[in-house]
Amino acid sequence: MAESMTLYWCSGSPPCWRVMITLEEKNLQGYNQKLLSFEKNEQKSEEVLALNPRGQFPTFKHGDIIVNESFAACLYLESQFESQGTRLIPENPKEQALMYQRMLEGLNCYDKLNWVIYYELMVPEDERHESALKRHREALTTELKLWEGYLQNVAEGSYLAGDFSLADVIGFPNVAVAVFFGLSAERYPKLTEYYNLLKDRPSIKTSWPPYWFESKQGPEVLKDF
Hints:
Glutathione S-transferase Yfyf (Class Pi), Chain A, domain 2, 10 helices, 2 domains, 4 strands, Glutaredoxin, alpha+beta
């Protein structure tokens, strides 16, 4: 089945990583992979644009079905292969509700991380303002403290919504990005504990961004948060 799947992806991209973790958890190893480069603008290649008019990663194809948004791809894979591999949507209604809540909240965290880490890439030089960067930094600090608080309320050794689920598929890459860019373990002990709990999980370790193997630590943009 995996042989009919193709993933166009970029190393270090949390949206791509989400889909890769899901594929691993659903025992769908052996899918076709095309590792492309943001630096070379390969997401705008004719091959990618033919499948994904937005010219973004990930671009995912299963047979003649195309699913490009990472949340949609993860939900699609869980729906189509529900009985295979790890069940990523809890059956318990309370846990399921929490899973969806944390999963969708993960997008808030991802956006706020991007606005701080990649501010200089996202905003043209003549449009940058110190007040805007200060506002983004304050918003990210509030967001990180919110997730630190969420993790204070889960049992030791537990994940974001009970057992490992799509909440973690979305949430872990965000935390890993924060750690890579210098998140303080002293100020965020629960986020650090969560990172350490999951970083060696087979689905995560197998799909770890190659770029991060080469660069053990990114620029410490978040060290003072």
